[in-house]
Amino acid sequence: MITVGIDVGSITTKAVLLNGTTWQSLLLPTGCSPRDAGKSVFEQILDRASLSPADVDCVVGTGYGRISLPFIDKAITEITCHARGALHLVNGTDMVIDIGGQDSKVIMIDEQGRVINFAMNDKCAAGTGRFLQVMAAVLGADVSDLADLARGAEPVQISSMCTVFAESEVVSLLAQGVSKERIISGIHRSVAGRVASMAGRLGRGRRITFTGGVARNGGVREFLARELGQEVTVAPEPQMAGAIGAALLARDRCKH
Amino acid sequence: MITVGIDVGSITTKAVLLNGTTWQSLLLPTGCSPRDAGKSVFEQILDRASLSPADVDCVVGTGYGRISLPFIDKAITEITCHARGALHLVNGTDMVIDIGGQDSKVIMIDEQGRVINFAMNDKCAAGTGRFLQVMAAVLGADVSDLADLARGAEPVQISSMCTVFAESEVVSLLAQGVSKERIISGIHRSVAGRVASMAGRLGRGRRITFTGGVARNGGVREFLARELGQEVTVAPEPQMAGAIGAALLARDRCKH
Ligand code: SF4
After folding, report:
1. Residue B164 alpha carbon to ligand 1 centre in Å
2. Which of A31, B20, B53, B74 is 20 to 30 A (C-alpha) from A3?
3. Recorded GO terms, molecular function (chains A, B) (predicted)?
């Protein structure tokens, strides 16, 4: 059986092709048209596998752009898809922490990957990848280099949670001569702190899996673990959790 | 009797000298030292009135920088000072809406200008002067020109409340060719909407007085009135409400 999951996020669009037990993945920037991005990843992933749409048994779409995909069989919410994907990626997961480019979510799941409870922030840039991007711009750094730049530094206290006010704080910390390493470490702690308090309100996980683009940042992971007082496992291919979950749910759907 | 009120805000520092029933005012940028700014406005306002510190019966400090003023007789919270100042500026005021450079507050007061209830936002840049500043920068405009630039235009919908996400929305509205007038009008409505909802949670005023630096923006005032379905009166010298209240409270204090 061949299924495809497509996750159209605000910044990147992901596709996963599931063929029996093997899977392939593809990631493209969403750009300004979620519909075109969704179409592109679908075509390209089929192309790479030398398949045509007719070979695919079921396509599930997820992510904020899922409603603009005319070719999918079903649209399923990100929460449901992420939960399923994270459990597949890390056995035994009961709490998923996902930090994406513009949102963050915490999901408690049962042994089947079903959602028990969740919390989500997509209203405020603090505690999302966007916070890191704004800060990287102020520091003249690339967001993907932040973790390396900070490595090992004692975090400086950034007292404003708000991205805009924190940006001014960072400017004045730089002017005061505080090292970039310590500032970046403080930035990582800020993101982790915001998301950890959202997680804390939901409860306590025994096995916490970290997904989303920000999960590639080891600094944020470390502070999440410190704040929660627990181990936090980064999912392999953390950005793919939603698309993998979508592909798995597509497979379940076809079986019935 | 001569009293002085000093309001050290995040962006500007204000002094009011009250001599019997006449008053003089002065406003300076706070810069990076609230302490120096407070000292400067105090010295300069005395200088202009040809007075020395010994001529002053009582000095009250307010605003976020009030604690760093060694020469004051008493520090009183912004909420208390604003309430008193607004009632003095506009007779009959029972609700004060203050929008400053980095915060916003709504205060319900009784006939003596005493605080019955209040709400404040100093955590989130949305619904404060900072939101307007960020947007003015994106539009390449001066924040003091926004109201003139928007005049009469139908507001475009800005769906994100968050300053950071709204900034991206404005960039893409500009790219779509939406007029600056409509965008600025939408920005004014966003600020007003955020503060109006804070006011709505407190109750309903019969006489609403608008103070703070943002009260000079007629566009925000208009949308506040629309959102609240009531008249909103801009206080004369709206930025001085806190310092005037401080000077009046200093007078009360000396009487006892
Ligand atoms: S706190 Fe800052 S980042 Fe969060 S919604 Fe408000 S403006 Fe946006």
Report:
1. 7
2. A31
3. hydrolase activity; iron-sulfur cluster binding; metal ion binding
